[in-house]
Amino acid sequence: MDTAIKKQIIQKWTNKQPLNQKIITLFERVRDIPYGDIGSRNPTDVYKQNKGTCSGKHELLKELYQQLGIQVKSYLVMHHFKKMPVKFPNHIQNILNKRNILDPHNFLKILVSKKWITVDVTWNKPLKKLGFPVNENWDGKTDMQIAVMPKGKIFETNDPISLKKQLISQLSDQVQKDRKLFLSELTEWLDLLRENKTA
Questions:
Q1: Are the CB atoms for 107 and 75 separated by under 8 Å?
Q2: Is 2 helix (H, G, I), strand (E, B) or coil?
Q3: Alpha-carbon distance 90 to 100, whole Å?
Q4: What does the alpha-carbon distance between residue 195 and residue 76 come to, in Å, rounded to a whole number?
Q5: Strand residues in 70-133 grouped as ranges (E)
Q6: Which of 30, 98, 162, 178 has the maximal Cβ count within 10 Å?
């Protein structure tokens, strides 16, 4: 992301706040970018389209934090969408019931007061009423919950986008196909709820 755009976003969202408040405000602003698959994980696209999945939203937050001089590490962990505590509509639940859809989930750790703390901006706040595990009321200095039910090894990576593509490519062709269908249907469902002002 272009440095000028990052500075513009930080100025627009945080203005003259002290650093500790900027950390919280940037988290909240990126968290509340509506969740949805836009076919891109590019942070500029996520910002301009005001929509993104965990990958793009975390890339955006990472770049904004780094612009502030905050040290950031990227992580990936596999998870099953089926384990989400959400009541999906039948047509989406049926996709999950067919087989376990594994997915690599992105999150961050940032260095605050000499301590690495977990940050996860995946689900925007209105999704809480649908059962999504939304992180809120964060103090900017303690771990928040990872927004999925992690399964297995946690990967630290300098290139989360490439690693994510690699991990997805290791899934069976059918799981990859079902994963893509699930994300498409999930995005469509959430967009419809937003249009009807119910999410």
A1: yes
A2: coil
A3: 16
A4: 31
A5: 72-80, 102-112, 115-119
A6: 30
Task: Quote the longest CA-to-CA distance of the chain.
Answer: 51
**Domain boundary assignment for the chain:** 3-195
> Distance between CA 169 and CA 66 in Å, rounded?
29
**Token pair for 8:** 């513009």
What is the per-residue burial (b if ≥16 Cβ within 10 Å, else e) of 131-152?
ebbbbeebebeeebebbbebee
Residue ranges, the chain, pLDDT below 70: 199
Q: What is the pLDDT of residue 190?
A: 96
Contact 127, 40 (CB under 8 A): no
CATH topology for 3-195 is C8orf32 fold (3.10.620)
Instruction: Output the pLDDT for position 199.
Output: 67
